[in-house]
């Protein structure tokens, strides 16, 4: 089990990023965010899992990336009992992740009135489980991350970003508000950015990276986590000669 301290500058010093399975082992179990994908992440060498959470019509926490189901129904308008069987609720998803750390991404593309109750429910579930070092709460809506931190200062939090123009803004806000991590999109990351983040005491977890050469390059930059659809590939790159690489 990896503590949250390893998803920070400590990982940079050690030189080996954490393998974070994006929606679980999503390449092996598409589209991911299922119990099977999370369980497979454990088997394929991941140390952490990333998953997406959003509210149902009755305020349960569904684990699903998109706002809509494949049949066109909007999850925020569907009761938990009416979800497809393959869409887990957060408690079942966390159980399936076993001993792994979990990056819980709070989705913001749902009705604004649901935001505060959703954040409160996520915080309550993670607090109920204890082991705060195993959790990282993130969102593209940085106000939701700030809300989570205000509710539970002991829970590690991070700022997600897609626009490369926001990398510096994310780092500045992480420092100002005490968030220990930033999770930028892969093309936004270079060695200089990783160095600046670490000098500020902030971890850099990069998404979504599947190519072996880029995984190796990011490791050389000193990133703290590689969020990937193929945790077995990442593990083989970062741990050559290990059991998963056939050594």
List keywords for this structure.
alpha/beta, disordered N terminus, 9 strands, 8-stranded parallel barrel, TIM Barrel, 247 residues
Give structural notes.
The chain is of the alpha/beta class and 247 residues long. The chain has a single domain (4-245), classed as Phosphatidylinositol (PI) phosphodiesterase (TIM Barrel), CATH 3.20.20.190. It has 9 helices and 9 strands. The chain has helices at 9-14, 35-43, 90-96, 115-129, 142-151, 167-177, 191-199, 212-221, 231-238, and strands at residues 18-22, 48-55, 61-63, 101-106, 135-139, 157-161, 181-184, 203-206, 225-228. It has an 8-stranded parallel β-barrel with strand order 1-2-4-5-6-7-8-9, surrounded by 8 helices. The two termini are 22 Å apart. The model is unreliable at 1-6 and 8-13 (pLDDT under 50).
The tally of beta strands, per DSSP, is 9
Within CATH, the superfamily carries the name: Phosphatidylinositol (PI) phosphodiesterase
Calculate the terminal CA-CA distance, rounded to whole Å.
Answer: 22 Å
Number of domains: 1
Which class in CATH terms? Alpha Beta
Number of helical stretches of at least 4 residues: 9
Using the CA coordinates, give the radius of gyration. 17 Å
How are helices and strands ordered from N to C?
A: HEHEEHEHEHEHEHEHEH
Overall shape: globular
Order of neighbouring strands in the sheet with most strands:
1-2-4-5-6-7-8-9
Structural class: alpha/beta
Portion in strands = 15-25%
| Average pLDDT, all residues | 92
| CATH-derived architecture | Alpha-Beta Barrel
According to CATH, the fold-level topology is TIM Barrel
Biggest sheet record? 8 strands, parallel, barrel
Helix content: 25-40%
Low-confidence stretches: 1-6, 8-13
